[in-house]
Structure prediction request, 249 residues.
Amino acid sequence: MLDSIRHARVEELEEGSLASGTLVGPFVKRLIIAIDGPSGAGKGTLARTMATRLGYLHVDTGAMYRSVAWKAAQDGLSLDDDAAVSALAERAVLDQTGGKVTIDGQDVTREIRTPEADKAAAAVARLPRVREVLVGRQRALGANGAVVMEGRDIGTVVFPNADMKIYLDASAEERARRRASDVAHTGGKDSLASVQSELVARDKTDSTRTVAPLTLAKDAIYIDTTEMPFEVVVNHVMMLLIDKLNPLG
Ligand code: DC
Prediction:
């Protein structure tokens, strides 16, 4: 019974009744939804889909670190020069409307998804002042709620009081497999073994750095997506959201 009611609500959301303006039940609220986890766990797909279904803003904070790193390299800055890179992060015009990532008006959607860009982003994401600047910009983007924000420190640092925190994970093998088959990311050219070793190395950088390392927030819902098809993950999270906001029993 409860499941059939929940399913009906999930179907309503899938049909986009919210996005088309028929706000129902608890979703009139402008929630902050934080999605964290390592690369390749499926954060992007989940965040984008939830944002579309809820009619919320989707913010990919990894793309912010990536575009700042890309621009810093273009400008010939050293990627460990916190003062110079953070000054750039402060003044840059960042935009990711319509799935297109731009920095200072330049479309970098493809450029920021190369193996070099992976390394450059991880390097600038270690810099304390760069993080401070980008965290400030992320808080401003989510200040009015109605946002699904994905990253590594959203539920721990950016929005510790987020209404819902999801931590997505998957085995390193599965994450590498997803990454290697992601044409937008690698061009589909890199071998699985090389993608996996790069990914494991980057996980290590992200989770051992001194400032805002990737960690599981105490109140986050942990989901291992290794064996879960994408639709199952989305529906599971949407049901959790409905249950959380509108307990049925
Ligand atoms: O999610 P991604 O792979 O696009 O992230 C790119 C890099 O930026 C990665 O090394 C992790 C880092 N990052 C971070 O430190 N904090 C965030 N909120 C998002 C990404």
